[in-house]
Amino acid sequence: MSRKSSKSSKPKEKAARSLTSTPPVAKTRGQKKAPGSKVQVSDNQYEEFLKFQAQKKKEAELNRKENVRKKVDALLDEERLQTTSVVPDGSDIDHIDGANPADILPAVVPPKKKVSLDFSDEDAENEADSDGNDEGGDVGKEDESLESTGVRRRTNGLIQVKDEPKEDNAERKCRRRISKGDRKPPTTLASLKKDGCGPLVDLAHQLLHVKIALETAFPGPSVDVQDSFVWDCIKEAVKNPGSPLKSMFDAISQDEALKNRAMAYVWSGASQLRGELVRKARENVAFLLQQMKPKDIGEVATWLISTKKDPFLCGELDLKTKTFNKNFPFRAVLLRQLLISQFFQGAGSEGLLYKDLFQKLPDNLLALLATAAECAFKGMLSGSPVVIEFKEPVFQPRHQYYMLKLAEYRKHSPMYMEKLRQDLWAEIGEACGFVMRNEVDDSGSELDFEAMEEYGRLQTNTIVSDVTVA
């Protein structure tokens, strides 16, 4: 019985324990608080928190003071470097707040007399009050340093501050005005029109485009050669004796500054023409390779540039099979597209205004087109478009290379070169609408001129008879 009673008493004790209130358990960080519940913090934890905050504030204040001290030291070092040429080493001078400048600054040997600097009345009164208790020698020394250096010095116990006189500020403003006046005047067409020579330089600018395309793609590199090239274009603009531009030419010739501006504007046409041409070449090349993957583009561009016989210039070019006809040099479609888009688009294009000169299609023009195309393909070697600048030191030798090739073709196969120019000009004419194929040697043989004359004779006789009857 005793065992049973002991066993039955255990459940009762457990039930009694469950009825007693359990102590609050501190929740770990990140657990959600029950609504309305408060976290109890012991006094020891709160005191430690306050000590931690006080320590942080103390460290922040120490860091701030350290930064201020470093800045002051840096200012002192900078001021010491600036004043070494004027003020000797003052390491033995104690900086005291409220000290007079005459007691701090050393004596300066008086130089030759200079024009005295005028200060405001308030400054003069302050100097008189501050120097009243000093000896006469010290006052004279400060006046001499002020007169010799043009700079007053005062101290606040930490650093020496120099006050620049008003005349220095005026001189600085004067220098600013002078520097602005020394800027180069603009060399734009609008500014030259205001000077009364706009039409002349505009025509010379256009003539330079024509000369760059047909005669010399890269004039120079000497500045004298470039200036001579530009001046020839300006003179050619007024080659007619009765030209209305003659007065403008005389004005430019007599004014050296205006002449330099005019020549600078005209010379800018060289880089402008070459830049426009290579930009259009990049656009055509990107359109030609747009259906390929970047890896294939890099391989094709490498093949076009590095293969002998220059495939990108030859006719019957097939990029998929990497084949071309080496016997058709300079018959690439890209060259014709570049020629038309650059020189024969728009009513004011050079190819239409100077059609007789462009009809000859000289070697310089064909070589310039080939050089621009090569520059565009070199920008695709990585598989994605990269802008390769069309600089004269890099591509002038390539232009000369194509000139030599054209001279060789003209020497060994003159009939091929003549046929090349005829076919290219016929294609340009068809594209622009000013020349039709087989237009040359077409004397109107399909027309019956006798019938046309008979019709005109009959109409004239009929009109005369009607007038007689009336």
From TrEMBL:
Which residue intervals are annotated with compositional bias (Acidic residues) in the record?
A: 119-137
Q: Which InterPro entries does the record cross-reference, listed alphabetically?
A: DUF6532
Chain residue ranges for the region called Disordered: 1-43, 56-192
Where the record annotates domain DUF6532, the positions are 204-408
Query: Where is there biased composition of kind Basic and acidic residues?
Result: 56-81, 161-172
Q: Which domain of life is it from?
A: Eukaryota
Would you tell me the protein name for this molecule?
DUF6532 domain-containing protein
